[in-house]
Write a structure and sequence with these properties.
This protein is of the alpha+beta class. 26% of the residues lie in helices and 30% in strands. It folds into 2 domains: 131 residues, no CATH class; 189 residues, Rossmann fold. The strands form 3 sheets. Strands 9, 10, 11, 12, 13, 14, 18, 19 and 20 form a 9-stranded mixed beta sheet that branches. Strands 1-2-3-8-7-6-5-4 form an 8-stranded mixed beta sheet. Strands 15-17-16 form a 3-stranded antiparallel beta sheet. The protein is globular and about 55 Å long.
């Protein structure tokens, strides 16, 4: 645990312990005093990759260093600081989350009247991404699909269609790894870890791809959340990362191929991975330098492409078939090749 034994002891003794439940997320086991009904259950006897406790009196920080902040919706700002023992992520509506420097221990200190549903979203989003960062991963804000046992990642600014493209790839036989937070671990091979299996779509895309699947509104009023996927369409285990695609805009007067890609140079690739990091605004200069080192290692091992797709829902399935063909086992178009636009 990141806090001292004296602080831990005083906090635990003063509060009634909660029931601990176990869930599968990010390819690991989360044991938590905060319930997560949206996550699949795991065995409580399994090794805990993360332990989440709920307490009400945060210990004082020791010479904290501010790292960064990020404005969220409804005027809420997320702020991240670090001291010698922990990271502390503070949000004005849900409270503070302490994450140990190895990422294994998380403590939530709820704000007065905090909404547990919003707190769960914070944990699944930025808090566990911070835990993965602390453990050495680089977390992308990405959609990721597994094709023939290998993952591809889609990154893009908001509104460029990465979730829609992911749904089209699912319809061509891919399996969903994540649609929001994608932890990437360096190594041989570089591994993409599964996130939460829910896809956020605009209404027109939801009408085309969700069909009779259950949808629910999200915090973003213009999007719906799709979660009712057949089990065979989901990927639950880490997968080698085959390629990363940056969706690029297509001029309205252009007539692009259905899908075309151009491989980026290593430095440009690394900067793309930093820019599309899940925690990019929060990490600041100190932690950002670690992120650049990890992003550079990933870019040396995994090709990063600029991907152009015509903005036409009527032809998105053709584009998806082209992308799947690039990554099918035995394809004659290897991922390392540059495909001219």
């Amino acid at each position: 645990m990141s806090s001292s034994p004296a602080v831990r002891g005083s906090v635990v003794a003063a509060e009634r312990p909660r029931e601990v439940m176990a869930y599968r997320v990010f390819g690991g086991n989360l044991q938590s005093e905060l319930p997560f009904p949206e996550l699949p259950a795991a065995s409580s006897a399994s090794h805990a990759d993360w332990t989440l406790r709920v307490r009400h009196e945060p210990p004082p920080l020791d010479a904290p260093r501010p790292l960064g902040e990020e404005p969220l919706i409804d005027g809420v700002t997320a702020r991240l600081v670090r001291d010698a023992a922990r990271f502390r992520l503070s949000l004005e509506d849900t409270g503070s989350f302490d994450v140990s420097l190895d990422g294994a221990e998380i403590i939530w200190y709820p704000a007065p009247g905090a909404d547990e549903e919003l707190a769960r979203l914070d944990v699944i989003g930025r808090v566990l991404a911070l835990a993965e960062h602390a453990a050495g991963a680089h977390c992308l804000h990405a959609s990721s699909i597994v094709i023939d046992g290998r993952a591809i990642a889609l990154v893009a600014p908001k509104g460029y269609g990465k979730s829609t493209t992911a749904m089209a790839l699912l319809r061509q036989g891919g399996r969903l790894l994540t649609d929001d937070t994608l932890p990437v671990r360096t190594g041989d091979p570089v591994l993409a870890r599964p996130g939460v299996h829910g896809v956020r779509l605009r209404e027109d895309s939801a009408e085309q791809f969700a069909g009779d699947q259950t949808t629910a509104p999200t915090l973003n009023a213009d999007k719906l959340l799709v979660t009712a996927f057949a089990e065979e369409r989901l990927a639950h285990e880490p997968a080698p990362l085959d390629a990363i695609y940056l969706l690029t805009p297509v001029r309205p007067d252009a007539e692009p191929a259905i899908a075309s890609r151009r491989r980026l140079a290593p430095m440009e690739s690394a900067l793309v991975l930093v820019a599309h990091g899940k925690l990019a605004p929060l990490l600041g200069r100190d932690e950002g330098s670690r992120t650049l080192v990890r992003a550079s290692a990933i870019a040396r091992a995994v090709p990063v492409f600029a991907l152009s797709i015509g903005r036409d829902l009527g032809r998105i399935d053709e584009a998806a078939r082209t992308i799947v063909r690039w990554h099918r086992a035995g394809s004659d178009t290897p991922a390392l090749a540059t495909v001219a636009p």
